[in-house]
Design a protein that fits this description.
heterodimer, A: 227 residues, mainly beta, Double-stranded beta-helix, 11-stranded antiparallel sheet, 4 helices, 15% helix, globular, B: PH-domain like, 2 domains, 7-stranded antiparallel sheet, 4-stranded mixed sheet, 55% helix
Chain lengths: 227, 371
């Protein structure tokens, strides 16, 4: 399986080359184009209950699509819904990632996607909701973001502060606490940051350069109100 | 490399994501074999004596092993339970204390997580249950804090608005008759904070209603249907008691409360604004609850008794209205008549001490003729 990101930037696509018999799973609706040798199947990853909980708990799609090169080698083009960058990670069986609910685009057959419940303060204030995806296993993992993706590398015990809702994915060896952006409560909110996540290494943290929630609030003012 | 990696190793020369490696537990210590090409592939032997262990990772569910080797500080993140178990069994005494501490830390984190969640579930459940069973009490408390002046303003604006579209009967025997009934009844209400205003509206609708604050409307249709003044007085007494018991306000608070909660839960702020606008409309479509109707019935009956107005008029009128569907009986649509309701009133009437009723000053036939 080979993959590459086409048109890197705001409107990228990912091209995945599949050998005969290989398959990948992707977010439902991610397929843009593919070779005629590739069959598209829809699958409830993790069984019916798993799919149901994923749909209701994380807001991810109920069905994943599986693209299978069942009639010979071929390629598939995949793209996310929102404008933003795509990053391809390799999972080797030991490095797990926590992925915020909209971050998953596609993954090799060998990766395992599970819902994970976060703690109370992280769930309530982390900006990612109570449920996130825990992605482990072996193989290629394709993530997408809103805006550009920036990788933060943390050495053991190195700290970094990320505004909540800018998170895309982070390795499970990192840990984070939710805290106020400034020392005072009022200044915390008037500074526009509210709560931030203090990450501690070692590991990787992928962040997105735009905040989907803020963008939504910004664009709302231009939508005509019909009454 | 036959075995897959089971740990991630962090150090200065490794990538930030960590170098995957295979950790094997031996008699004297750990053997770390790096599986990626970036690190040297020579297995590294680390004696137990140089190691420190603790719990770490996102959920404190990984074992963090640290040591200072010839190439600087190394940090190992172990997740595989089998390896951790084997390590713990083989580890010498000086590590067992750290192991116990790490295990305690994991237990504490899990325990705290469970505690917090059960607390949250408990609070949510008790709030829901409390609202479910205690909502009437909450509404009562909320209503009791609303001053009568507010209630009057609320009712008055809706009342004036309603009357502006209606043909109001300003004088005549009907107005005088209703005035007499109202006067006789209100004289029997101790500490009455309301100044009742009863208006006769020309309409064939068989209905009467009361707005919060003491504004009562009686339609001529209802007066035409009644066979005596006592029957109209029965309806009036019922409506006055809706006002006195603040049923309308209770209803508004309850509806607003539910809608406000719904608006907050579903994140619909526009709904809150719309809700306030709807308040005026709400007043006319308010349907009282069954308990409120019963209360207004019984209190109405008692009020009639105190005012020495024959209470049986109330019962006969209710019964007659329910017997057959005559014209536009809107009063029935908001005041569903049931045999049980009439029976309850009869039983209540029988229990009340007998008082000799005093007839009205007016002649009902003349009043009806003037409609």
């Amino acid at each position: 399986m080979k993959s590459e990101v086409l048109y890197p930037g705001a409107f990228p696509m990912v091209r995945v080359e599949l050998a005969a018999g290989e398959n990948i799973k992707a977010e439902s609706g991610a397929m843009v184009a593919c070779s005629p040798t590739i069959d598209i199947e829809s699958k409830m990853e993790g069984g019916f209950l798993g799919a149901l909980s994923r749909k209701f708990l994380t807001g991810e799609k109920f069905f994943f699509q599986t693209l299978r090169a069942s009639r010979g080698p071929g390629e598939a083009l995949l793209a996310p819904t929102v404008p933003g960058e795509i990053v391809i990670l390799e999972l080797d069986g030991v490095n797990d990632y926590m992925v915020q609910k909209d971050g998953f685009l596609a993954g090799a057959d060998g990766i395992v996607i599970e819902n994970k419940m976060q703690g109370l303060s992280r769930g309530l204030l982390g900006g990612e909701g109570f449920f996130i995806l825990n992605i482990s296993g072996k193989g290629m993992l394709v993530l997408n973001s809103f805006g550009a993706i920036h990788k933060i590398e943390l050495k053991p015990n190195q700290e970094y502060i990320v505004d909540n809702s800018h998170l895309v994915a982070w390795s499970s060896t990192t840990s984070y606490n939710i805290e106020k952006a400034t020392s005072g409560w009022v200044a915390s909110f008037t500074s526009g940051e509210g709560f931030v996540c203090r990450f501690r290494g070692p590991g990787l943290v992928y962040i997105q350069s735009r905040n989907p929630g803020s963008f939504g609030a910004w664009i709302r003012q231009f939508i005509p109100v019909s009454e | 490399m036959a075995s897959p990696p089971n740990a991630l190793c962090f150090g200065d020369e490794f990538p930030a994501a960590g170098a995957p490696c295979l950790v094997q537990v031996e008699e004297h210590g750990l053997t770390v074999t790096f599986t990626s090409d970036t690190a040297d592939s020579e297995p590294e032997s680390v004696p137990f004596s140089t190691l420190t262990v603790s719990a770490g990772g996102l959920d404190h569910d990984q074992l963090v092993v640290k040591w200072v080797g010839p190439k600087g500080e190394r940090t190992l993140y172990l997740k595989n339970p089998d390896t951790i178990r084997a390590f713990r069994q083989a580890a010498p005494d000086h590590l067992s204390h750290s192991f116990a501490q790490a295990a305690e830390q994991v237990r504490q984190v899990r325990h705290r997580g469970r505690l917090v969640w059960s607390l949250v579930v408990g609070v949510v459940l008790s709030t829901v249950l409390g609202l479910w069973f205690g909502s009437d009490l909450l509404v009562e408390i909320a209503v009791s804090r609303i001053p009568v002046e507010w209630e009057q303003k609320l009712g008055e604006s809706a009342y004036r608005d309603f009357l502006s579209h209606q043909e109001v009967m300003k004088e005549g025997p009907a107005v005088a008759a209703l005035g007499e009934m109202t006067q006789r009844m209100t004289a029997q209400i101790p500490d009455n904070p309301y100044k009742f205003e009863v208006t006769v509206v020309k309409s064939d609708v068989i209905n009467a209603f009361a707005l919060p604050g003491g504004y009562v409307v009686v339609f001529t249709g209802l007066m035409k249907k009644a066979e005596s003044g006592e029957e109209v007085a029965g309806v009036l007494s019922h409506e006055l008691n809706h006002v006195l018991q603040r049923h309308g306000l209770e209803r508004i608070v309850k509806n607003l409360g539910l809608m406000a909660v719904a608006a907050i839960v579903f994140g619909n702020q526009q709904g809150l604004v719309g809700m306030m606008k709807q308040l005026g409309v709400e007043l006319f479509t308010l349907k009282f609850g069954r308990e409120q109707e019963t209360e207004a019935d019984l209190k109405g009956l008692q009020l009639l008794q105190r005012a020495r107005i024959d209470p049986s008029g109330m019962i006969t009128f209710f019964e007659r209205l329910s017997e057959k569907d005559q014209g536009r009986m809107e009063w029935l649509s908001t005041h569903p008549m049931s045999a049980a309701r009439a029976e309850r009133l009869k039983a209540e009437l029988a229990a009340l001490p007998k008082k000799l009723p005093e007839p009205f000053m007016f002649d009902w036939k003349q009043v009806q003729a003037g409609l």
